[in-house]
Write a structure and sequence with these properties.
The complex is a heterodimer. Chain A is of the alpha/beta class. Chain A folds into four domains: about 120-275, Beta-Lactamase (2-Layer Sandwich), CATH 3.30.450; about 310-365, no CATH class; about 375-435, Histidine-containing Protein, Chain: A, CATH 3.30.1340.30; about 440-570, 60s Ribosomal Protein L30, Chain: A, CATH 3.30.1330. Chain A is built from 18 helices and 18 strands. In chain A, helix 4 packs across helix 5, helix 5 (about 115-130) crosses helix 6 (about 135-140) and helix 15 (about 440-445) packs antiparallel against helix 16. The longest helix of chain A is centred in the first third of the chain and has 38 residues, at about 75-115. Mean pLDDT of chain A is about 80; it is low at about 540-545 and about 565-570. Chain B is an alpha/beta fold. Chain B has a single domain (about 1-165), classed as P-loop containing nucleotide triphosphate hydrolases (Rossmann fold). Chain B has helices at about 15-25, 30-35, 70-75, 90-105, 125-135, 150-165, and strands at about 1-10, 40-45, 50-60, 80-85, 110-115, 140. Chain B is globular. Chain B starts with a strand and ends in a 9-residue tail after the last helix. The model of chain B is unreliable at about 170-173 (pLDDT under 50). The chains are: A alpha/beta, B alpha/beta.
Chain lengths: ~575, ~170
C-alpha cells in the first residue's frame, strides 16, 4: 500500500460525514432550480403568510379556481351536485326568506302609511299619477337609492356592464354611457383640467350621478335622494375589485363587453337603498285622535237621533193635520223626501217643518192639490166661496151646510143656488136664517132716533136699545150691499133745541152726532161712507109734538151710492 | 354584443347629423351639438353574421368658431369623414380632420363620403380630385342623406373594415 492510499484511507475515516455534507451543498449550489419537494414543504405556510398580508393571492387564484371548477363540473357534474346539495338547500331557503321578508316589509310600510293623513295624500298622488301606492310610499320615504350603476370603459366611453334597481327607469344605456363620457371630456377640456382632475358628480333634479374613476374604467352611479359620503367608498371598492379581477379584459378591451358580465355581483352590491322609517305617532296623539273621533261620533249620533225624532213627530203632525195626506215619506242621503196631497186651505207645511225644528232645505216635498172633506175645511171653504156676512153663521153637519143668523134676502137667495157647488156640501139648509131686504134695512136705519138731555152729548142708557138696533141694521146693510157694487152713505145728523146760543148749539149738535157715530162703530163700517152733520135746530119733526125734547136728537139717514171712494168720515 | 366607437367628422353643415338620422331611428336632440359639441347615437349592423353595435359620436362640424375636441376622438375604432360635394372647402376641412384623427387615434379604419349626391351637377369637387383621394388610400363613397342613398352602405362598410382590421397596439403607432 502506497503512502497516498494510506492518506486517502485516513482522510476518509476522519472526514467522511463532513465530506458527504459538502457534496450535498455542492449539488445544491450547482442545481439552483426550485425543487417541487422543497416548495411542497413551504407552500401551505407561504399561502398563509401572503393571504394575511393582502387579498392579491385570492384575486390571482380566482380565475384558476373558477376554470378548475368549471372543468370539474363538465367532467363530473354528479359529484359537484352531491357536494353542494347540502349547502344549496339552505341557501335557496334563505334567498326565498329574504325575498318574502322584503315583500313583507314593503307591505307593512305601505300599510303603516295608508291610514295616516300623509298616506291619504300619497294615495291621492298614486291615483293621480297612476303609480302603485307602494311605489309612491317608497319614493317619499326614500333617503337615497342607487338606481343604476354603469361600468364604462374610460377611453372609448363604451358600456362594459350595467345594473339597475327594480323599478328604476333605465335609459338607453350605451348612448348614455357615451354622453356621460363626452360630458366629462367637455367639462375637463373647458376648464383646462389635467387628466387626473375629473368630473366627480352632477345633480339633476332629485338624481345625483356619482362618478368614480379607475385606471381603465369608471363607475357611474345614478342615485335618487341624498346619499352618504360612505357610499363613494363602496363605489371605489367595487371599482378596485373589478380592476383586480379583469386586468387583461380592461387593458385589451376591443369592444367585447362579454367578460364583464362577471362584474354583475360586484355592481349589484352598489345598489344600496335607505328608507326613512315612518314616524310613530305618540300615544298622546292617538288618545287625542281617538277621543276626538268618539266625541265626533257621539255628537253625530245625538244629532242623527234628534233629527230622526223630529222627523217622526213631523210625520205624526202631518198625519193629523186636516187637509193633508202623506203618501210617501222616506229618508235619503241628502235629507228627507215627502210626497202627498194637500188642500189649498190646509196649513202651510213649510211652517210645520220649521215648527218641528227641522231645516226646510233638508226636506224635499212634493204636494198635489186636492179638496179635503174634513168638516172644518169644508166650512172654511163655504165661508170663502159664499162670502157669508158676519151676521151669518155657517156650520157643517156631515154633507149638510146649515146657515143661521141674519142676512139680506139677496144673499140668502144667491147662497141657496151656490151652496151645493161647494166641494163637500150636498145639502143646504137655512131655516134658521132671518132675511131682510135692503129697503127694509134702510128704513130701519132711517127710523133710528137717539135722544139727549138738555145740553148733554152723552148717550143715555135708555137710548142704547135704539142705537143697537140701528147699528145692527147698519151692519147688515153694509154687508148686504158689499156684493152689489154699491156703498152705504150714512149721514149722522145732530141737533139741539132752541135753548142757548146758536154757536153753542151747533157745537153741541156736532158732539152728539160724533158720539152716536162712535157708538155705531161707524169708523169700522166696511163699505159705508159716513157723514156727520151738526144743526143748531133740528128740522126733523119726528117728535110727536115738536117739543124741545124731540129736537135734542141725533137721526140717521142712510142712502146707497155707487162705490168709487174709500171709507171716509166727512165733516162739514 | 361587440361595440365599436365611431366618430362622424366633417366641416360645418356637410350633413353628418342628416346621415346619422338616416341611419338610426332614435336621435337625441340637436341641442347637444351647440352645448357640448357632440351627440351620441347607436345602431346595430351585421358583419359576417355577427352583430356589431356602432356607437356613433356625431361631432359638431368644425368651423372658425368651434374646433373638434381631440378628447371626443379618443378610443374610436374608426371614423367617417363627411364632405359636401357642392363646397370644395369641406374637402380641406376633411384633410385637416383626418390629420387630427390620425394623431389622436392612429391608423384606424375610416371612410370618406361626399354628401349631396342628389345635386351632382352642382358639385365643386371634381372627378380628378376624387381620384387623387383614392390614390392616397382613402375609401370614397357618394351619398345623399336627403334620399338615403349610400347611407346603410357607408356604415356597414366601415363596420366591416373595423371588424376585419387587426388590432394595432397604440405603442406601435
Amino acid at each position: 500500500m502506497s503512502v497516498d492510499e494510506d492518506w486517502t484511507q485516513l482522510r476518509t475515516l476522519l472526514l467522511s460525514p463532513e465530506q458527504t455534507q459538502l457534496d450535498e451543498l455542492r449539488d445544491r449550489l450547482d442545481n439552483r432550480a426550485v425543487q417541487p419537494r422543497d416548495v411542497s414543504r413551504v407552500l401551505p405556510e407561504a399561502f398563509a403568510v401572503r393571504g394575511e398580508r393582502d387579498p392579491q393571492l385570492a384575486t390571482v387564484l380566482t380565475p384558476y379556481v373558477e376554470n378548475g371548477f368549471v372543468a370539474t363540473i363538465r367532467k363530473s357534474p354528479r359529484a359537484i351536485v352531491d357536494a353542494i346539495a347540502p349547502i344549496m338547500g339552505p341557501a335557496i331557503r334563505q334567498a326565498i326568506a329574504r325575498a318574502l321578508q322584503g315583500m313583507t316589509q314593503s307591505f307593512n310600510h305601505s300599510l303603516d302609511e295608508s291610514l295616516s293623513v300623509r298616506g291619504l295624500r300619497w294615495r291621492l298622488e298614486a291615483w293621480r299619477t297612476g303609480r302603485p301606492f307602494a311605489e309612491v310610499v317608497l319614493l317619499h320615504t326614500l333617503r337615497y337609492r342607487v338606481e343604476q350603476v354603469f361600468l364604462i370603459h374610460r377611453e372609448t366611453g363604451l358600456l362594459l356592464h350595467h345594473v339597475g334597481a327594480e323599478g328604476a327607469v333605465v335609459q338607453d344605456q350605451q348612448v348614455l354611457s357615451g354622453m356621460l363620457t363626452a360630458i366629462q371630456s367637455y367639462v375637463r377640456d373647458s376648464f383646462g383640467a389635467s387628466p387626473d382632475q375629473t368630473l366627480d358628480h352632477f345633480r339633476v333634479g332629485e338624481w345625483t350621478v356619482w362618478i368614480e374613476q379607475g385606471s381603465h374604467a369608471y363607475l357611474a352611479g345614478v342615485v335618487r335622494g341624498t346619499p352618504p359620503e360612505t357610499l363613494r367608498e363602496d363605489f371605489q371598492a367595487a371599482l378596485d375589485d373589478i380592476h383586480a379581477q379583469q386586468p387583461d379584459a380592461l387593458t385589451h378591451f376591443d369592444g367585447d363587453a362579454a367578460p364583464f358580465k362577471a362584474t354583475q355581483t360586484c355592481l349589484e352590491n352598489c345598489l344600496h337603498a335607505h328608507y326613512e322609517p315612518p314616524p310613530r305617532p305618540s300615544a298622546l296623539k292617538l288618545w287625542i285622535l281617538g277621543g276626538a273621533m268618539i266625541l265626533l261620533l257621539s255628537w253625530w249620533g245625538v244629532m242623527a237621533y234628534q233629527t230622526h225624532a223630529r222627523w217622526s213627530n213631523l210625520l205624526v203632525e202631518l198625519g193629523t193635520e186636516p187637509g193633508m195626506v202623506v203618501t210617501v215619506a222616506k229618508s235619503t242621503l241628502t235629507g228627507y223626501h215627502l210626497e202627498g196631497l194637500r188642500d189649498p186651505l190646509a196649513k202651510d207645511p213649510s211652517a210645520m217643518v220649521v215648527e218641528a225644528g227641522l231645516e226646510p232645505s233638508s226636506i224635499k216635498a212634493v204636494w198635489s192639490p186636492y179638496y179635503s172633506l174634513d168638516p172644518q175645511l169644508v166650512e172654511t171653504r163655504a165661508h170663502s166661496m159664499l162670502h157669508a156676512p158676519t151676521t151669518v153663521k155657517l156650520s157643517v153637519e156631515g154633507d149638510t151646510l146649515v146657515a143661521t143668523g141674519s142676512a139680506s134676502t139677496e144673499w140668502a137667495r144667491e147662497t141657496r143656488r151656490l151652496a151645493s157647488l161647494v166641494p163637500g156640501i150636498s145639502i143646504y139648509r137655512d131655516e134658521g136664517l132671518v132675511t131682510t131686504s135692503i129697503p127694509d134695512l134702510l128704513e130701519r136705519i132711517n127710523r133710528t132716533v137717539v135722544r139727549f138731555r138738555s145740553g148733554s152729548s152723552i148717550v143715555e142708557p135708555s137710548e142704547r136699545a135704539a142705537l143697537g138696533a140701528g147699528s145692527m141694521a147698519l151692519r147688515e146693510l153694509d154687508q148686504a150691499v158689499s156684493q152689489s157694487g154699491q156703498r152705504v152713505r150714512l149721514e149722522v145728523l145732530g141737533s139741539t133745541d132752541d135753548t142757548g146760543s146758536v154757536t153753542r148749539n151747533i157745537q153741541l149738535s156736532k158732539e152728539r152726532a160724533h158720539v152716536v157715530l162712535v157708538a155705531l162703530g161707524g169708523d169700522q163700517l166696511g163699505e159705508a161712507t159716513t157723514v156727520i152733520a151738526g144743526l143748531a135746530q133740528s128740522t126733523d119733526q119726528r117728535g110727536s109734538t115738536g117739543e124741545a125734547r124731540d129736537r135734542r136728537i141725533v137721526t140717521l139717514r142712510a142712502t146707497l151710492t155707487v162705490a168709487n171712494r174709500g171709507n171716509e168720515a166727512a165733516r162739514p | 354584443m361587440m361595440q365599436k366607437k365611431v366618430c362622424m367628422l366633417g366641416g360645418f353643415a356637410v350633413g353628418k347629423t342628416s346621415l346619422v338620422r338616416r341611419f338610426v331611428s332614435n336621435v337625441f336632440s340637436d341641442h347637444y351639438h351647440t352645448t357640448i359639441g357632440v351627440t351620441v347615437e347607436k345602431k346595430s349592423v351585421t358583419v359576417d353574421d355577427r352583430d356589431v353595435m356602432l356607437v356613433l359620436w356625431d361631432l359638431y362640424g368644425e368651423d372658425e368658431f368651434q374646433r373638434v375636441r381631440d378628447s371626443y376622438l379618443r378610443g374610436s375604432s374608426g371614423y367617417i369623414l363627411v364632405m359636401d360635394g357642392t363646397r370644395r372647402a369641406t374637402l380641406d376641412a376633411a384633410f385637416a380632420l383626418q390629420q387630427t384623427a390620425l394623431q389622436t387615434v392612429g391608423t384606424v379604419p375610416f371612410i370618406s363620403i361626399i354628401n349631396k349626391a342628389d345635386v351632382r351637377s352642382e358639385w365643386e369637387i371634381d372627378e380628378r380630385t376624387i381620384e387623387q383621394l383614392r390614390e392616397r388610400g382613402w375609401t370614397v363613397l357618394f351619398g345623399s342623406a336627403k334620399l338615403g342613398q349610400g347611407v346603410e352602405e357607408l356604415f356597414v362598410t366601415l363596420a366591416t373594415q373595423i371588424v376585419h382590421a387587426a388590432p394595432i397596439p397604440r405603442d406601435c403607432l
